[in-house]
Amino acid sequence: MNLRKAELRDVPALSELISRFARERVVLPRTISDLYENVWEFTVAEEGGRVLGCGALKFYSQELAEIRSLCVEPGRESHGVGTALVERLLDEAEAYGLKSVFALTLVPDFFRKRGFHQAAREKFPMKVWRDCTSCPKYSNCDEKAVALDLAERRARRTRRVPRAASQPPAPVLST
Ligand SMILES: CC(C)(COP(=O)(O)OP(=O)(O)OC[C@H]1O[C@@H](n2cnc3c(N)ncnc32)[C@H](O)[C@@H]1OP(=O)(O)O)[C@@H](O)C(=O)NCCC(=O)NCCS
């Protein structure tokens, strides 16, 4: 499996994957024109040239982004594709210098296992204003908000990879 940024040629596959779950009201629908406009938000997982998963990072501010349109092809679940996509999107969020990433989801446990915490939806009013108010589930929404602090993620990673005892100390740089 290979992870890469989506390209324009991926839009038909993205549309098919997302539409399938949108029909089940698991993710929000995305129109073809929306996908062409925002294809750069997407990362795809592919195998043998076939897209088998996707996820997008939507920016809301200098500090905050949302993971959305996260989908893994039916029949390919539980093979680590979703996790790999989330980790790649979090790496991307870090590279942009963001502070936190959230998701509104029906699978909060999947995100909790990846270090996200449950959060109050009211913390993300711009999401509610942008997407939720036009969603058919608005008055009866069953999705949970989850969020991850990227500084905590970095700290967890540092704790997992202790400096080798034999490794020389990092040089002190004078300014
Ligand atoms: C949710 C989804 C992205 C997970 O992708 P995946 O490739 O199956 O996930 P992975 O194989 O990386 O991870 C599997 C882990 O997540 C957990 N998991 C997967 N789907 C889950 C679900 N629906 N509810 C709770 N936990 C779930 C599994 O128990 C497993 O846990 P483990 O790591 O302790 O074994 C995928 O099932 C999917 O596309 N679902 C439909 C669309 C959707 O709900 N997207 C999320 C929108 S925010």
Folded structure, characterized:
This protein has a seven-stranded mixed beta sheet, sandwiched between helices. The protein has six helices and seven strands; from the N terminus they run E-H-H-E-E-E-H-E-H-E-H-E-H. It has a single domain, classed as Aminopeptidase (3-Layer(aba) Sandwich). It is globular. A hairpin with a 2-residue loop joins strand 2 (42-47) and strand 3 (50-59). With 175 residues, the chain is of the alpha+beta class. The relative contact order is 0.13. It is 32% helix and 25% strand. The model has no long low-confidence stretch (mean pLDDT 89).
What is the secondary structure topology, with strand pairs?
Elements: E1 2-5, H1 11-23, H2 32-37, E2 42-47, E3 50-59, E4 64-72, H3 81-95, E5 100-105, H4 108-112, E6 117-119, H5 125-130, E7 144-149, H6 150-160
Parallel strand pairs: 4-5
Antiparallel strand pairs: 1-2, 2-3, 3-4, 5-7, 6-7
Coenzyme A is lined by residues 21, 26-27, 70-72, 77-83, 103, 105-107, 109-110, 113.
